[in-house]
Design goal:
This protein has about 400 residues and is of the alpha/beta class. The chain is built from 17 helices and twelve strands. The longest helix has about 35 residues. The structure holds ligand FNR. The site of ligand FNR has 23 residues, from helix 4. GO terms for molecular function: FMN binding; oxidoreductase activity, acting on CH-OH group of donors.
Amino acid sequence: MKKVKAGLFTATVLGLAMTLTTAYAAEYKASIKEGPLKIVNLNDLESQVKANMDKGAFGYIRGGAEDEKNMRDNTASFDRKYIMPRVMQGIELKDINITTSFLGIPLDTPVIQAPMAAQGLAHRDGEIATAKGMAKAGSIFTLSTYGNKTIEEVAAVSDGHPFFFQLYMSKNDAFNEFTLKRAKESGAKAIILTVDSPVGGWREDDLRNNFQFPLGFANLELFAKQNNDGAKTGKGAGISEIYAQAKQAFTPSDIQYVKKMSGLPVIVKGIQSPEDADRVIEAGADAIWVSNHGGRQLDSGPASFDVLPAIAKTVNKRVPVVFDSGVRRGSHVFKALASGADIVAVGRPVLYGLNLGGAQGVNSVIQQLNKELRINMMLGGAKDINAVKQTRLYTDSDLQ
Ligand code: FNR
């Protein structure tokens, strides 16, 4: 395998972003809050975070692409389906069972955390705190390639709890192989191969705020260091520079490459059409992840929830289906499961919980979804996750 010099990769991908991490970490005022959160609903968290967070960081986390129509529609689309109230089911709330499993991993909840970059923006402990919070919730933590912590640091605090590694492939195979090998050796249970971001969506808050990542991307830095080129100095690179060296011309053959390099199951993330679901399964994907990146990519695309039923039909249980984008309520989790998802991931609210309460804040966010889910299951007559999956949802036209 041809080795590409780390410096070339670092400098090209991240411009001058990668160094002085410690100095900038000290300079950048991330939250140090710790403690459980009193949550009425997850929507409330956004304004609480906005009041305290650096403007650029908040814009990067909250924002979507272009007019943010897709981002809004992701959540609004759940309102277009109804859960029929069911009565006299002989169920007690304490008997509602939300445990499940995914890729053979037993879970206390059907809610996992979506991979998100640069969690040091939200909290000083970044991904370490999120991993601890997700472990406490009995669920799965997923580490982004662009995390502020290394795979090894996350593995160390996961304490046997399952975590996945999300790969943004580079055009530099040396980086891909180095990173996948570390993920496998550190105990990651699967690789999430994100394929919906060959370029970044047009995110206007980042442009208005002239947002620069203030902290280093730990896994890229490690690669640079181990390839003996040292990190370059300077502050953050623009988002467009980060994407510059990322692989753009994905093909289904990348799935086999990642499987071979990692020896782990590969979940292909960013599927929105039945045709693509079929192609990636045919190419060997072990699971698919239905997502439009939380409305951060193609603003003209449909709501992720709207495309889920047709994709699930095409998948026809050949592989498990993960769903994300717009999930803010237990009812949304219920509806996604009833529409063909096997597991549901949540993005931004986890970072808001992280910002407001560290590891415990992350756990509080998952517990809030769990609480709402249990109530919806009780009132919708579904005693466990299998029953939720078999529940029929209704549309306006069904009710005519
Ligand atoms: C993301 N997302 C993401 N996805 C991915 O595969 N790798 C990544 O590094 C990131 N980074 C990232 C950063 C931030 C701040 C956000 C908000 C999102 C997308 C993420 O995994 C998920 O698809 C969406 O966040 C789901 O939508 P909601 O729940 O935020 O609406």
